[in-house]
Amino acid sequence: MSNNKDFDLFRTSDDHEELRAAVRAVAQDKIAPHAAEADELAAFPKASYDALVASDFHAPHIGEAYGGVGADALATCIVIEEVARVCAASSLIPAVNKLGTMPLILAASDEIKAKYLPPVARGEAMFAYGLSEREAGSDTASMKCRAKADGDGWVLNGQKSWITNAGVSSFYTVLAVTDPQGKRGSNVSAFVVEKSDPGFTFGDLERKMGIKGSPTRELIFEGCRIPGDRMVGAPGEGLKIALATLDHTRVTIGAQAVGIAQGALDFALGYVKERSQFGKHIAQFQGIQFMLADMAMKLEAARQLVYVAAAKSERGDKDLSFFGAAAKCFASDVAMAVTTDAVQLLGGAGYVKDYPVERMMRDAKITQIYEGTNQIQRIVMARQLLKK
Ligand SMILES: Cc1cc2nc3c(=O)[nH]c(=O)nc-3n(C[C@H](O)[C@H](O)[C@H](O)COP(=O)(O)OP(=O)(O)OC[C@H]3O[C@@H](n4cnc5c(N)ncnc54)[C@H](O)[C@@H]3O)c2cc1C
Question: How far is CA 259 from each of CA 284, 335, 339, 350, 367, rounded to the nearest angstrom?
Fold first, then answer.
């Protein structure tokens, strides 16, 4: 074995592991205590938000030029993973701040970036992302929300469905058709809409299976007038920007899935060492040990794929689409399997709300659905494979 430091290549850096320890401390002390209550009351975890802002973990991806801490894509994933390990709903604070602002980071003018990124970096505002519509979920290009040029501004009409952190966010990236006669996929533009813009309101809170602390609502635009300088990128480029955003942010959903699964595995490991049946700790049964080994094996494979995808996101590698989709798809399937097994390992105790694995299993499900269902991830992967 060589002592050459170059052989340390395939591992996270000391800085990344120090960051993990710092986030874990905040998550354990300030976020975990409120996780069950946020779920039970379906209430936005304000205490988590305040703790994340106080420690600069609420929007870590924003660059120093805009007042952020400039965490790289892997560091951002580690933040999301560690928060999700104790509270999936809270992990959507850094995750969706990245989702909402990524279109700006990728494509907006300096003026738009200078106006909207610093308040998010300071923790004064959150940023949400409005792509999906009631009749246009997987098929995003069939969206109906319309932005019409009107004098020196734009007027928006239509709706967006299932928007994470709607209502609690001050700013929204909204995708709307600007050229109804134009080519499908090239007739959409991206805009920043502010919560206070006239004609912009929200639907009722969705009543969800999981991530209940994260508010999900419709965005409703009824003659919503916005100034002309709110377009992100060029006219007609909106859908491309929205999909390029997802290439990067699907990796963060992979990280969220890894965190949820790790939280469930950690809890189950503690439980099986305490619980006795047939005169011994259930951890001593080989049937239980094999389950634990499979859970940990799948989880580690998911984590490695997410971290490689994060490195690709940071570098902007050409195969990011494949890796972003693969990381999200694989990690979310693992999260569903691992949390389901964690419930199984706790037996009846796993099925009741006295223990967190019940919540974690419900929370895991959404990672297979949002930012594109896992069927859509497979389409994205196959498309990239067949292009070669
Ligand atoms: C809690 C929550 C939060 C969300 N947050 C946001 C957000 O912040 N911003 C946002 O824009 N959206 C958000 N979404 C929307 C989410 O991204 C969509 O729900 C998702 O993309 C699926 O769209 P759909 O629900 O219309 O399902 P559909 O597109 O109707 O799909 C139904 C089923 O058909 C399958 N399917 C569809 N097309 C194909 C195909 N070509 N081949 C094979 N199978 C196919 C799907 O995989 C799925 O199983 C959120 C959703 C939820 C539930």
Answer: 26, 8, 11, 18, 11
